[in-house]
C-alpha cells in the first residue's frame, strides 16, 4: 500500500513538472466542454425558405404568414426556379402555392401545395417536413376550414424537458465523453513514456509488482481526473444551468468509478503500444470513437445497427451517460441506474486485469 | 528535359522521402486503418432516424376505434407497441426510466365522445430527455392522428389543403449520405495533419535534418520534396474514402469527378500545411500529437461534419467561416449529393484556395527559416 502511494506521489510530481501536458490537461477538457456543449445542436432554427405564391390572394398570404409565425423559418427572396435556391444553398426548402389555391380551397375542392425540401441534412429535412405539415393543419383549423367535431385530439406532454432544450441532452453526455478521453490519454502517455525513456527498466529492477505499478499510476491520474471532473461539472453547471434533478449520490459514486475505468483503459493502451504517438492514436481512435459514437451521446443507442450495437454494450461511456442524464435531467436515482454503476465497475475491473497481464508479460514479476 | 528532371537533386530528395515513408510500416498502417475504421463507424453508428420508438398503451376504451388508432400509430414502423397495460402508473414509470419513449392513454369515453360528435382527447407523454427525438416523435403523433381523423373518422371529408413534400438530393433520407461526405473531410484533416507533422518532426528529433542541410540541396528543394510525396499519399486516402463511400454506403456521385479531385487536392494542401506548421512550432513528437489533438477537435466539431452548421448558435456559425474543413465539406456534399459545380460552390472554393495557399506558404516558409 505504501509503495502504491509513493508511486502515485512520484507520478503526480512528474506530471506537475511537464508544463505542456499540464496546460493541455487543463485546457483541452474545458475547450471540449464549451465546443461540444454550445455547438452540438441537432435542430435548426431560422431555416431559410422560399415561398412562391402563384395565387397571391388574401388566403394564400394568410397561409404564408402562418408559416412564418412559428419563427422557425425565415423568408428568402428568390425569383427563378426554386430548385436552384436549394442547389445554391440559399434556402433549405421551397413552398409553391398553386394559382388556383384560394379558388379551390373556398370552392369545396382541395388544393395541393408543393413543398421541396433539401434532403442533405436528413434530420432537419424531417423537422422541416413535420413543421410544414403541422402548420398547414393549424392554418386549416384557424380558418375553420375543417370540422372541429368528431376529432381525436392528441394532448402531448414532454416529460423532464418540456422546453426541449437540447443542452439538457448534450451537456451531460459531454461530461462522459470528456472524462473518458482525457484521463485515459494522460495515463496512456505516462505509461508509454516510462517505456520510451527506458525508466521502466529501473522499475523492473525494483521489487515493485505489475499490479502495484499500475495502481500507483492509476491513483495519480484518478486524482487528476477528479480535478477535471470538478472543474468541468462546476463550469458546466454554471454556463449551461444544469441542476440536479434528483438524488446526486449515484453520480458522486459513479464519477470516481468511471474515472477509474478510464485511467485503466489508458494504462492498458500504454502498456500495449510501443510509442507515445501510437498510444495517443490509440486513445484518439478507440477511446474517442467509442465514447462519441457508440455511447448514445448524439443519437439514440437503439439506432446503432447490429454488429456495432454489440460493441456499444462494452463502452463504459454509454453507462456513464445514463448516470449523468439521470442525475441532471431524469432524476430517478438508484433504481434507474444501479445496473450502469455495476457495469462501469465490472468493465474497470476487466481493463485493470488486461493491463496487469500486459505488463507482467513484459517481465515484471507478480 | 525529362531526363534532366530525373537526374536532379530534387528528384533524389523525393525518392528519399518516398523510401522513408514506404519503409515506415506504422505510417502506412496509419494512412489506411484509421480512415477506414472512422468512415465505417461514423457512417453506420450516426443515425438520426426516428423509427421503432417504444410505445406503451393504456386503452381504457377497448373499442374498434381505439384499436384502429393504435394500429394507425404502428403502421409505419415509427412506433412499436412494447407494452399494453391497464395500470397508468406502471406506464408512467416505464417512460420515467426511459424504457418506453412514448406512453399513450385512451380514456374510457373515447368512442362515446366520437359518436357524440365531441372532440376526444388522447394523452400522450413523451420522454423528453432526448429533445430532438422527442420533437420529431410528437410531430409524427400529430400527423398520424390527423390522418386517422381524416381517413377513418370522416372518409368523405374534403381535405382543403394537402402538402406534397419531396426531398431533393436524398429522397429516402438515408442518413449515411449526410455523414459520409463529412467524415471524408474529417479523415483527411486528422490523417493529413498528423502524418505530415510526424514526417517533419522526426527528422528534427533524430537530427537528420542537419545532415540534409550539409548536402548542397537548397532549402526550397528540401521543403518541396517533403510536400510532394505526402500529397500523393493523401490523394490515395481521398480515393480510399471515396471508394468506401461509394461501395459500402452507396453515396451518389452526381457531380464532376475531376472537379472533386482538384478541390480535394486543394484540401490536402491545407492538411499538409497545418501539419508542417505544427511541426515547426513543436519541439518533440509528443508535443506534436497533443497539439494536433488541440487543433483538430475544434476544427472537426465546427465543420458541420456531424452537427450541421445551421443548427449552431450564430457565434459559432460565423467562427466556422475561418474553418477550411467547413468549406471542404460543403464542397464534397455539393458535388456528391447535389451534383452542382463551381457556379454554386465558388465561394467555398475561393475560401479553400486562400487557406491552402496561405497555410502552405506560411508553414513552408517557417520550415525554411528553421533550416537556414
UniProtKB/TrEMBL annotation, chain A:
Location relative to the cell: Cell membrane
Source domain of life: Bacteria
Residue spans crossing the bilayer: 20-40, 168-192, 218-239, 251-271, 283-302, 337-355
A GO term from the CC aspect: plasma membrane
Keyword Lyase: no
InterPro entries, per the entry: ABC-2_transporter_component (IPR051449), ABC2_TM (IPR013525), ABC2_TM_bact-type (IPR047817)
Protein keywords: Cell membrane, Membrane, Transmembrane, Transmembrane helix, Transport
GO MF terms held by the record: ABC-type transporter activity
Name the record gives this protein: ABC transporter permease
UniProt-listed Pfam families: ABC2_membrane_3
Similarity comment: family membership: Belongs to the ABC-2 integral membrane protein family.
Membrane topology: Multi-pass membrane protein
From TrEMBL, chain B:
Transmembrane segment boundaries: 27-45, 177-201, 222-245, 257-281, 288-309, 345-362
Domain ABC transmembrane type-2: 134-370
Chain segments annotated as coiled-coil in the UniProt record: none
Phosphoprotein listed as a keyword: no
Keywords: Cell membrane, Membrane, Transmembrane, Transmembrane helix, Transport
Topology term for the membrane: Multi-pass membrane protein
Top-level taxonomic group: Bacteria
Name of the molecule in the record: Transport permease protein
